[in-house]
Write a structure and sequence with these properties.
single chain, about 180 residues, mainly beta, Immunoglobulin-like, 2 domains, 4-stranded antiparallel β-sheet, elongated
Length: about 180
């Protein structure tokens, strides 16, 4: 039987997509069929067997930046938001619409215009949309990213996250926002 993985993406300028298995880039051949149509990228694994088990990563990029993410259960993820504007700047984080408070599970920090949110001990319930809002006297702006949590937790497994989402606020002249999620940990 075959197996299909799909990711829906949106962005401008034009996007290009790539798929990886265990860190190696895949291409369309007798084993894999890769498609990208109407904002949906698909990876079809033909005649899937146990040998096809592994870590699949999707990467999308354009001239503004790239986004790819691989996170494992039990590991940690760090989301970063670069915020530029006139102080004071108030930053709030949300997960699926619920405001996040710092504690053992979530650690929010603000250092040198970098707002970071560390999500510890990833579980399936941590999957979802994370929203960062930044507010100052000139107004407010926000950016969001979707975090997928996949795989099985293995003792001593290293976390692998390589995500870069870049964008700029156009709503307020006193505030510029830049998102990135880097290889943290």
């Amino acid at each position: 039987d075959s197996c299909t993985l799909e990711c829906t993406v949106d962005g401008t300028p034009e996007l290009t997509a790539r798929w990886f298995k265990d860190g190696n880039e895949l291409s369309t051949d007798h084993k894999y069929k890769i498609s990208f149509f109407n904002k949906v990228s698909g990876l079809k694994i033909l005649n899937a067997t146990l040998e096809d088990s592994g870590e699949y990563t999707f990467e999308v990029k354009n001239s503004v930046g790239k986004s790819s993410c691989t996170a494992s259960l039990g590991s940690s993820a760090v989301l970063e938001c670069k915020v530029y504007g006139s102080p004071p700047i108030l930053v709030s984080w949300f997960h699926d619409g619920q405001e996040i408070t710092s504690g053992e599970k979530y650690q929010a920090t603000l250092t040198d215009n970098t707002c970071s949110l560390k999500v510890n001990g990833l579980e399936e319930s941590d999957m979802g949309t994370y929203l960062c809002t930044a507010t100052n006297v000139a107004g407010a702006d926000e950016c969001s990213a979707f975090l997928s949590v996949r795989g099985q937790y293995q003792e001593r497994e290293k976390f692998n996250l390589g995500m870069h989402i870049y964008g700029y606020s156009t709503d307020f002249s006193d505030m510029e926002e830049k998102w990135s999620e880097n290889n943290a940990l």
